[in-house]
Amino acid sequence: MNPRGTSRRIAGELRERVVSGRLASGAFLPSEGMLSEEFGASRGTVRSALAILTGEGLIESVRGRGRRVVGEPQVIEGSNAYEKIALDLKARVAEGEFSADEPLPSEAELVAAYGVSRNTVRRAYRSLTEDGIVFVRQGAGAFLR
């Protein structure tokens, strides 16, 4: 089968998954590498198939994340790990779980609780700092404003 036919075949299979609901709105597609392996095709051929689906408006590219099925995802906010942590901390602040004179959970505590890297936790705290909710005191931790 020629490459154009192969990319159309792959696009057809992925289209069927989207239409049938096996790939729900907001779900991310497997990576190009995984799709290449699954279909026994080059990444370029897979990329062509994905371009067909993008052109049809079935999927979209999300920078740094991959391609996802167009539509409302189940979680509209907090699609990145740091955003989820920041949203969770905002909710806990709103519930009054933390006092202004006590530090918020340490980076190490949040790394263990969420199973993420220290940089992800730092990014969450940076987001909260930019929103004016907390301030970070070097060596002492993060505190409520």
TrEMBL record:
Keywords carried by this UniProt record: DNA-binding, Transcription, Transcription regulation
Pfam families cross-referenced by the UniProt entry: GntR
PROSITE patterns cross-referenced by the UniProt entry: HTH_GNTR (PS50949)
Location of the HTH gntR-type domain: 4-72, 79-145
InterPro entries named in the record: Bact_HTH_transcr_reg, Tscrpt_reg_HTH_GntR
Protein's UniProt keywords contain RNA-binding: no
Protein name, as recorded: GntR family transcriptional regulator
